[in-house]
Write a structure and sequence with these properties.
By secondary structure, this protein is an alpha/beta fold. The protein contains 11 helices and 14 strands. A 6-stranded parallel sheet has the order 2-1-3-4-5-11, sandwiched between helices. Strand 6, helix 6 and strand 7 form a beta-alpha-beta unit. The radius of gyration is 24 Å and the shape is globular.
Length: 363
């Protein structure tokens, strides 16, 4: 009976225009539509998987305030421009672009949709509706170096690079500097595979580095192929983006991973609150919980663990900065003077190996 009266009242209100007088809170707000664009498959075991875990964490935290979607396997070509354009046309007001190569397509699309907020990983071009965000990867790789430098018997470290872009070059440099801080005899070798995800190429690179004497190999690619290679060859390896120890329980000593959840929650809340602004470049690291080290292998001696934990605490406090001088490049030229830190312009455009890395950066 009460339900009948209520329905009659609503019909009467619509007929007489009284419904317009109801408070706005009486109507459920539309959820904010948030989209994620991925370079690889969700289940790649590394980079894309970690971003998708962040998306899932965002959904759990925000509930019905938001609605998320994702598009996976989007190449860093004109195809990505089409994907961004479609998502914006479909009403997604916050779009996370999770790969460096989306930078130029994103610049184009952002101008067509000024009311859409875009966030881009690892880029360097912002706009009124574009924010750049990235982890302080160099902190994780510096810590990888401190372990590798103590565990190596050959004093040769290997590094599998994806593309020779500044953020990746910083990682091999930082790993080498971290290793040299505990073992000045260390040298590093790099092989560039020119892909983010190709298990075959990654495996071949790992096998080659191990054959060349590298008994600790780190990677800046997305699959666990190098961990598997080290497990089979009886050497050590380090993961990136996700804990890949299940692929090599003896081989993986640790790894640098990311937890994107906190950042995604913070930025989405800004949009909901109306406080989001563009023209920002945000870098989070160990201190903020975006960079997270994978568990240490029990095979690491206690004294080496102690050194690792000490370096980690000093990175968090700011006492250690991976690119504080003195640092020379591998030609002997001063890259950072003693008592100074690498200047932002050099840091963001780095194309140089530090001393101890063999060869030269590919052009």
């Amino acid at each position: 009976m009460n339900l009948t009266r209520t329905l009659k009242a609503v019909r009467l209100g619509i007929a007489t225009g009284l419904v317009a007088a109801l408070p706005a809170a009486a109507f459920a707000a539309e959820p904010l539509k948030v989209a994620f664009v991925y370079l690889g498959p969700r289940g790649d075991g590394g980079w894309t998987q970690q971003h998708d875990m962040g998306r899932i964490g965002l959904e759990k935290a925000m509930g019905d305030k938001i609605k998320t979607t994702f598009v996976e396997n989007v190449p860093e070509t004109a195809d990505s421009e089409r994907v961004f354009r479609q998502l914006a046309s479909d009403g997604y007001k916050l779009i996370f672009a999770t790969s460096f190569g989306y930078m130029e397509p994103l610049q184009k699309v952002s101008k067509l949709f000024p009311d859409v907020k875009f966030e881009h990983v690892n880029g360097f071009k912002t706009a009124k509706n574009i924010v750049v965000y990235e982890p302080r990867f160099e902190e994780g790789f510096y810590l990888i170096g401190t372990i590798a430098g103590q565990m190596t018997k050959s004093n040769t470290l290997g590094f599998i690079g994806s593309f020779p872009i500044p953020s990746v070059i910083r990682n091999i440099d930082s790993m080498t500097l971290g290793a040299q801080a505990v073992n000045p005899k260390v040298k590093s070798k790099a092989i560039w595979v020119n892909t983010w995800y190709d298990p075959g190429k990654e495996r071949q690179a790992a096998d080659t580095l191990i054959a060349q004497g590298a008994d600790n190999v780190a990677q800046n690619t997305d699959s666990p192929a190098s961990i598997q290679a080290a497990e089979e060859k009886g050497t050590y390896a380090f993961s990136i983006d996700a804990d890949m120890s299940s692929f090599g329980k003896k081989a993986q000593l640790s790894g640098t991973t990311e937890d994107w959840t906190g950042y995604y929650i913070a930025e989405t809340q800004k949009v909901l609150d109306g406080t989001w602004t563009g023209e920002r470049h945000t870098r989070w690291g160990l201190k903020e919980g975006m960079v997270v080290m994978a568990p240490l292998n029990p095979a690491i001696p206690p004294e080496a663990v102690k050194v690792f934990e000490d370096k980690k605490a000093k990175l968090i406090s700011g006492e250690i900065k991976p690119f504080a001088g003195p640092i020379n490049d591998n030609t002997g030229k001063v890259l950072v003077a003693a008592g100074a830190e690498m200047d932002p312009k050099t840091f963001n455009s780095l194309k140089t190996y530090v001393a101890g890395i063999e060869g030269s950066v590919p052009q």
